[in-house]
Specification:
By secondary structure, the protein is mostly helical. It has helices spanning 4-10, 22-29, 33-41, 59-74, 79-91, 99-109, 114-124; strands spanning 20-21, 48-49, 55-57. A 3-stranded antiparallel sheet has the order 1-3-2.
């Protein structure tokens, strides 16, 4: 899977340049803008700010957002666990372009198979909404 960062490099874009508003990033990541504000408050995805104090995201931020979505939706991790993992990735000096690859290798190493990931996706895909197979 080609990352957004690789695609943007081929077009000559500066991946670290903050230029994308929160509404567009929310749409790309398929999350609510409030979710991105929570990520910012929890310091796991902190975008730059414009002169008018608006959040502006870079391509690197979007890539990191995709990692957060993978960790929460595919692996079923909570925000505290994501915070720890993001901190450890930074501490290990792993390039942001390698985050997903690294985490997928770790998941394979600890036997979190694609079947388990699929189960987690079903379980955690619609948080707060109960699935009921019963008819009333």
């Amino acid at each position: 899977m080609e990352t957004l960062l690789k695609k943007s490099k081929s077009t000559g874009m500066d991946n670290a340049a903050p230029m994308i508003p929160i509404s567009v990033v929310a749409s790309i990541l398929n999350v609510h803008q409030r979710t991105l504000r929570i990520y910012d408050a929890e310091q796991i995805l902190s975008p730059s700010r414009s002169a008018k104090n608006r959040r502006l995201y870079s391509m690197e931020d979007i890539e990191k957002g995709m990692l957060i979505q993978f960790l929460t939706r595919e692996l079923g991790l909570n925000i505290a666990a994501v915070k720890i993992i993001v901190h450890l990735l930074k501490q290990q000096n792993i390039a942001s372009t390698k985050y997903m690859e690294f985490i997928k290798k770790v998941a394979d190493t600890v036997n979190i198979t694609t079947d388990i990931q699929a189960e987690n996706k079903l379980k955690f895909g619609k948080r707060g909404r109960r699935k009921t197979n019963e008819t009333d």
